[in-house]
Write a structure and sequence with these properties.
Blueprint: E1 10-13, H1 16-22, E2 32-39, E3 46-49, E4 56-63, E5 65-70, E6 75-79, E7 82-86, E8 92-96, E9 103-110, H2 114-118, E10 127-128, H3 131-149, H4 154-180, H5 184-199, H6 207-213, H7 218-229, H8 233-251, H9 256-262, H10 268-279, H11 283-291
Antiparallel strand pairs: 1-2, 2-9, 3-8, 4-7, 4-9, 5-6, 5-8, 7-10
Helix pairs in contact: 3-4, 4-7, 5-6, 6-7, 8-11
Length: about 290
């Protein structure tokens, strides 16, 4: 590895014997960070690991660009705003662009839940991180780095491990959205339909309206939406409405009928049946449980 990026870079490698001991702790064992770093404009940054490593390698590019290749496969370009995950045990190599050196935040993570978060697939294809999640990733990096820099006590490692779980959840969500709608335009269309749903919880939106918001045919929209969320569009919409109703029941004194009407259900009996089906309790029982 050859890297020259100035004095601002940050790098922290936790001692292996110490982490082997800490890894047996129930709050560290599921997921923990072993290495963490930030390399700004890292010209000549290059790594080649012919045997891979035991940890997952997570790299988030915030400026410039670079590339990653897994197990001798084709080379993937990593651009600004994209993140790549190199699976544990996979031979790999990666490097910064010569013309536009990347700035990367990176982590090495291990643990019993690592494969559940990052998947068993042997692929390092980069995927975009939503703009609203970028600050969260950088904030979690800063907090992890700060705590681990203060010392390698068990309490600091436990705290950083919980932050690692939050970080891994953000990455998993971003990847699942990308996998469900790999076409960026289609993904934006689905997001538009989701926003339309949340903005019209007091109405009754039809499947045709939602498909129109996504600029897709009804069959194509339904297929992509279910792949993205696991639910059909109308089922998902109804669940959003019931979620909204549960907040009114817990936080206000409005009658069940008033809450039903406020969330677009003209028939209070249908509303009550649907509420119990989704929430597991009748509206009245739900209110009692959350207002006691």
């Amino acid at each position: 590895m050859d890297r020259r990026s100035g004095d601002q870079e940050r790098l922290l490698v936790l001692p292996v014997p110490m982490m082997d001991e800490y890894a047996s702790h129930p709050l560290v064992r599921p997921l923990h960070i072993t290495d963490i770093g930030w390399f700004p404009k890292a010209r000549n940054h290059y790594w080649r690991r012919t045997e891979g490593i035991e940890a997952y390698v997570i790299m988030y590019c915030t400026e410039g660009s670079g590339w990653v290749r897994l197990d001798g496969d084709r080379r993937h370009e990593v651009r600004k705003g994209e993140l790549t995950v190199i699976p544990a045990g996979a031979p790999h190599e990666y490097g910064s662009s010569e013309e536009s050196p990347w700035t990367i935040y990176w982590f090495h993570m291990k643990g019993e839940l690592a494969a559940s978060f990052f998947g068993p697939e042997r692929s390092a294809e980069p995927f975009p991180i939503p703009v609203e999640r970028s600050a969260a990733i950088i904030g979690l990096f800063d907090e992890c780095y700060e705590f681990l820099s203060q010392g390698h006590s068990l309490e600091h490692v436990i705290y950083a491990s919980q932050l690692a779980g939050h970080l891994a959840a953000i990455i998993r969500l971003a990847y699942s959205k990308r996998k469900a709608a790999p076409n960026p335009l289609r993904q934006a269309n689905i997001e538009q339909a989701l926003r339309y749903m949340t903005e019209h919880l007091e109405d009754n939106v039809s499947l045709a309206e939602l498909a129109a918001q996504a600029a897709l045919s009804i069959p194509h929209f339904t297929q992509l939406f279910k792949k993205r969320t696991g639910y059909s569009p109308i089922d998902y919409y109804l669940r959003l409405k019931i979620q909204s109703a549960s907040q009114y029941l817990a936080l206000t004194d409005q009658s069940v009928k008033a809450v039903s009407l406020r969330t677009g259900f003209q028939d209070p009996y249908y509303f009550s049946r649907l509420f119990k089906k989704i929430m597991g309790k009748s509206p009245s029982a739900y209110r009692s449980a959350h207002q006691d």
